[in-house]
Amino acid sequence: MANLVAIAYDDMDQAESAMRSIGELVKEHSLTLEDAVIVEHKANGKLKLHQPSLAGIGAASGALWGGVIGLLFLVPVFGMAVGAAAGAAGGAARDYGVDDNFVKELGEQLPSGGAAVVVLVQESTRDKVVPEISKHGGRVIQSSLSNEQEQAFQDALDNRGAGV
């Protein structure tokens, strides 16, 4: 079962920094996401959604598996190209996960100039993910975690990873 976690930040720079860390955790296979989005509450009151490309993640894993399959059939470059194309198409085609309307409702609760990272986590290696994400601080504004898990995560955010 996937867990939804939304973390509010004071500004877009903080949210983007946290999302870069999330991207690195995904690359090192410490975190598996179904969806991720940054919602920004602009100073003029408008909301803007910034959605990182899941197609890129699909292309990378598709290229890896395509290369492996290509090696088996002695055509690795062709296998990588086909795998990357299939992975990118699969990543772009799937638009399930966090509902855009839900994200917009969350964004309306943010102060002007604030931003939030919203992720739908499929799997994570807690001892690697929490210290990395908590370096950015923030405030949990929505989650499907248990009360104890949410409080422990908020404590880590408050302490910016110290003692995690």
Name of the CATH first level of the domain at 3-52 and 98-158: Alpha Beta
Oligomer: single chain
CATH homologous superfamily classification of the domain at 3-52 and 98-158? ACT domain
Count of separate DSSP helical elements: 6
Largest sheet: 5 strands, antiparallel
CATH topology description of the domain at 3-52 and 98-158: Alpha-Beta Plaits
Shape: globular
Structural class: alpha+beta
Residues in helices, as a percent range: 40-55%
- Share in β-strands: 15-25%
Number of strands: 5
Low-pLDDT sequence parts: 54-61
Rg estimate, integer Å: 18 Å
End-to-end distance, in Å? 25 Å
Order of helices and strands: EHEEHHHEHEH
* Major beta sheet, strand line-up: 3-2-4-1-5
Chain-averaged pLDDT: 78
Based on the structure given, which CATH architecture of the domain at 3-52 and 98-158 is correct? Answer: 2-Layer Sandwich
Short description:
The chain has 164 residues and is an alpha+beta fold. Helices cover 51% and strands 23% of the residues.
